[in-house]
Design brief:
Oligomer: homodimer
Number of helices of chain A: 9
CATH topology of chain A: Arc Repressor Mutant, subunit A
CATH class of chain A: Mainly Alpha
Shape of chain A: globular
Largest interface: A-B, 50 and 50 residues
Strand content of chain A: 5-15%
Distance between the termini of chain A: 20 Å
Helix content of chain A: 40-55%
Number of strands of chain A: 2
């Protein structure tokens, strides 16, 4: 599953999976933008390319960070959901955001939403909310992968 | 300074700088391994290549995340130090580690040191310690870049 493990260091082992410019943006789309379909993620303002998006989604499925199911409202469309392993990436995104609010030219549109990032506060509530939206009924909260029916 | 800003999103703006497999490993070396010289970082177990290490160190200097000074004990050698902006990356490394301890095959050698990562606890103490080691006397704690004399 892991193409290349460089060492047993926890920082390195994390970066082996999401140490690139795009993977955590896909997670962000799933977490905060309500984007659950391939086409929606493709339309995000960073302009991810189709081949990178397809490649990263496949990796995230293989790693059990994301699951892909049939969208009940559009049988032709696949819907992507975070697993518990994916939802557990939230504190990383929060700390990246917190650093950027301090040191990077964050767009004003994001500043209104900065409170939870900046305070480092309400992550538990947010994670509970994400579990409601992404984990299917019956899934144990510790599920690390799920069946894919598409 | 920023080669390419993809959007004003704080997650994206962070990844524009350190969204790769290597940059945060250099920060890790400076933070936790006491590696302050180029040759020491080159010797880390992930086997970073000379051109990637040189490229990333230059970027980190340009961004004011790291400063380079003359090593007082070896006038020929440069010593790298974290700035406050660099020390503020610690919570990101901690959260990456915390996720890896839960989901990745972390080497036993790291598990003994896992307490602060896992508890998400003593970051303030660690950051205070890093400031003592890396920020030069007289530097304000909010310094974002410093003079380089080599």
């Amino acid at each position: 599953m892991d193409e290349k493990i460089r060492s047993g260091c926890p920082v390195s082992l994390g970066l082996d999976i999401f140490g690139d410019r795009w993977t955590l943006l896909i997670i962000r789309d799933l977490m905060f933008s309500g984007k659950r379909h391939y086409r929606e993620m493709l339309g995000s303002e960073e302009h991810i390319s189709t081949n990178i998006l397809a490649d990263r989604l496949k990796m995230l499925l293989d790693e059990g960070i994301v699951v892909k199911t049939e969208d009940p409202s559009h049988k032709q469309k696949a819907i992507y959901s975070l697993t518990e392993k994916g939802i557990d990436l939230l504190p990383i995104l929060m700390q990246i955001s917190s650093w950027s609010y301090k040191y990077r030219p964050v767009d004003e549109a994001y500043v209104d939403n900065a409170a939870p990032y900046e305070q480092g506060g309400d992550w538990d509530d947010l994670m509970t909310e994400l579990r409601k939206v992404h984990l299917r009924p019956g899934d144990a909260p510790t599920v690390s992968n799920g069946p894919s029916n598409t």
